[in-house]
Amino acid sequence: MRNELVRRFEDFGTRAAMFDREVSFTYEDLVDRIRYTQIVLDKHGVAPHDVVIVNGNYSLSAISTLLALFLNKNVVVPLVTLNDRELATVTEHCRPRFLVTAGDELAVEEIAAPGPGPAGMIGHLVDEDAAGLVLLSSGSTGAPKVILHNLDTLVGEKLETRPRGRASRLNILMVLMFDHIGGINSLLSTLLVGGTAVLPRKRVPEELCALIERHRIRVLPTSPTFLNLIIMGGYHREYDLSSLRLITYGTEPMSDELLRRINRNFPEVRLLQTFGTSETGIARTTSESSSSTYFKISDNNVEYRIVDGELQLRSRTQFLGYMNYADDSPSEDRWFRTGDLVEETDDGFLRVMGRAKEVINVGGEKLLPLELESVLLGSPLIEDCIVYGKANAITGQTVCVDVKPKGELTRAAVRKHVLEFLADKVEPFKIPSKISVVDRVEVSERLKKVRALPRDGGG
Amino acid sequence: MKDQILKIIIDAIDDINTMREEKISTENVLDLCLYGNDGVFESMYLVAFLSQVEEGVEDEFEVEVTLASEKAVSLRVSPFSSVRRLVAFIEEELRLAGAGAA
Description:
The complex is a heterodimer of chains A (459) and B (102).
Chain A lengths: L1 H11 L3 E5 L2 E4 H17 L7 E5 L4 H12 L3 E5 L4 H11 L3 E5 L3 E5 L11 H7 L3 E5 L9 E5 H9 L11 E3 L7 H11 L4 E4 L5 H11 L3 E4 L1 H10 L1 H4 L7 E4 L6 H10 L4 E4 L1 E3 L3 E3 L1 E3 L7 E3 L4 E6 L2 E6 L5 E2 L13 E9 L5 E6 L4 E3 L2 E3 L1 H8 L5 E11 L3 E10 L5 H13 L10 E4 L22
Helix pairs in contact in A: 1-2, 2-3, 9-11
Chain B lengths: L1 H16 L25 H19 L8 H5 L8 H14 L6
Helix pairs in contact in B: 1-2, 1-4
């Protein structure tokens, strides 16, 4: 498999592998850089199966390091930002031996002496003589979950896709993050078939739209929230985005109303919903249509079932387990609970209704934020909004909404509008009791809306 | 301070009345029972009403108070049994929050 990967890159030769800060690098350059990195790693004593943190964002340097470590059968921990909390978690549970800082220069630092043996379930990877990948979950509370993947399995699956010819070149903008399953998936999918990855430095709408225009990007993998930011800011009118052929959206549920807005603004572009988790990898999907939030999981490597409304997955590219939450790791039969509530149509299309933990319970009556957000986005006066639950001592929880209105509106005016707008559209318990006006809806590093969970509420 | 709080409550009721078919009379407002046997609100609407009052208090006194709190529901005499008691409860909450001089 390792030979196959290198052979492919050598065959792609002078094709552009990536654009990093306006500089084009061919696959030959990539192979050279991987070999150089292998020498540097070797010089510092990095041995197969050592756990290595790679601190960096998308760049020739970071990508080459990732691939060199794969070839060397290491366990790679990509971290875009190195903060104390994440470093402490990784150190405790993975016992990393090296920290590689992949900036303009490559810096390798030995942070621990060789240990008595591999940490926890890394032993499985040693037994299989495979490389590993550690991802951290983006949990908002508590320590992040440490998710261990077999990197050979992830790469192997991508090698099953035949390389593309020069004519049908894939030109893709790396919007999802380098240390996120979606980002790793996009990167491997692109490079292993000979596509060109355009690497952004800043993940803000302006920069990304400018890159789409300059590099005639065809494929944009992104999130619903980010697409809304582009439309709200009018960036799709400011920049020429006519090269786009396919927008894939995932990482958070899409509301029908937002999808309508996107379709209106990108009439020529095909829209595809992707579905995946850090634990199970990204499944191949087909959307019912560009204007539908219904999709099918059409991936031979992925099985699914629905238990009590929650989607469960079992995939070949599934993680080996959590290194710090033994109890939550998949059971004997390996079904993984996604935490997503879905509905299924008779002909097998699925629709994500929201996250199980985001259910708002108002005196026994239940609501998912997405449903109400979708209704509210239909208002001509509302640009964006976020619905969440807040605990109180009377009804258990109440529905709250933060609204970013179109133009200047007072809180009183927004409240009046929201109440009138919702009056004949939703059941009374879904009417928000607290309505606030915000300048912007907060978006996380991973381009998702930041929604307070009911248990975070005061009262 | 009492008068200011009372005005906030009356404004909230007036506001809610614009959306309601069966209007709540504010004639004898201090004795108006908000929740319970003779209460004018069901629980869900009470919470909405209280959060509107919280908002008014926040605007007027620049202090955040929580009215649908454990403390409020566990008081021997409910602050929602009359507007008079609610005013007293808010006054007390404001005093505890250090807004007494306002």
